[in-house]
Specification:
The protein is of the alpha+beta class. The protein has one domain. It is 27% helix and 35% strand. It has one helix and five strands. Strands 1, 2, 3, 4 and 5 form a five-stranded antiparallel sheet that branches. A hairpin with a 5-residue loop joins β4 and β5. The longest helix is centred in the middle third of the chain and has 21 residues. The radius of gyration is 12 Å and the shape is globular. This is DUF6894 domain-containing protein. InterPro entries: DUF6894.
């Protein structure tokens, strides 16, 4: 298993995930990022916050970006 980190980027700001999650592969990491992004979006919408521009930068243990998931891309409208 590989440890993946789910950093949140909003423009020039980056909030780093220092714990990460052990998952089987990058496909599992992508699925986890989509699920987490949907949860975060739901919380923002319920509290009336702006939803614009945030994304997950999913990295592996070496720090290599394996996925970039814009939060807006996980919504089905």
């Amino acid at each position: 298993m590989t440890r993946y980190f789910f950093h949140v980027r909003d423009g020039d700001d980056l909030v780093e995930d220092t714990e990460g999650v052990e998952l089987w592969d990058s496909t599992s990491a992508r699925e986890e990022a989509i699920r987490a992004a949907r949860e975060m979006l739901a919380e923002k919408l319920l509290s009336g916050e702006r939803v614009d521009g945030e994304l997950f930068e999913v990295t592996d243990e070496s720090g290599r970006v394996v996925e970039t998931i814009p939060f807006k891309s996980v919504m089905k409208i």
